[in-house]
Every structure is written in C-alpha cells, then in structure tokens.
C-alpha cells in the first residue's frame, strides 16, 4: 500500500462490504478517520487502519 487505503481495500481487509465501511465510519467513533481528497475521493491512512485492526484483535482476545 502507498500509505493510503481506499474504501474497497478497507472493506476487503475487514472482510465486510463497502456499505458496512460507510455505515461504520459514520457511527463508530473508533473507526479510522476519513481523509477527503477533493470533493469525492475518500481515503484512510494506512497507520490508522492498522491501529484500528489491532484494537479489534485486542477486543477479541480473552484475557
């Protein structure tokens, strides 16, 4: 990746639909913040995505 992740790439990484990505980014405060490029292009920072995915793994770990 080039440091930026598309909605489609994020959906694939999370194994969810693009619609789920859109829904979660609007309602989940822990979801990676959106970077808007122009008026229509939406990207996510790869580091934010990695941190989010790590937090999901930690939430699913039984201590």
From TrEMBL:
<dbReference type="InterPro" id="IPR041657">
    <property type="entry name" value="HTH_17"/>
</dbReference>
<dbReference type="InterPro" id="IPR036388">
    <property type="entry name" value="WH-like_DNA-bd_sf"/>
</dbReference>
<feature type="domain" description="Helix-turn-helix">
    <location>
        <begin position="5"/>
        <end position="56"/>
    </location>
</feature>
<protein>
    <recommendedName>
        <fullName>Helix-turn-helix domain-containing protein</fullName>
    </recommendedName>
</protein>
<dbReference type="InterPro" id="IPR009061">
    <property type="entry name" value="DNA-bd_dom_put_sf"/>
</dbReference>
<dbReference type="Pfam" id="PF12728">
    <property type="entry name" value="HTH_17"/>
</dbReference>
């Amino acid at each position: 990746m080039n440091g930026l992740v598309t909605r489609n790439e994020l959906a694939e990484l999370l194994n969810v639909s693009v619609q789920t990505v859109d829904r979660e980014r609007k309602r989940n405060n822990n979801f990676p913040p959106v970077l808007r490029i122009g008026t229509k292009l939406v990207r996510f920072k790869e580091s934010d995505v990695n941190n989010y995915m790590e937090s999901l793994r930690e939430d699913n770990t039984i201590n």
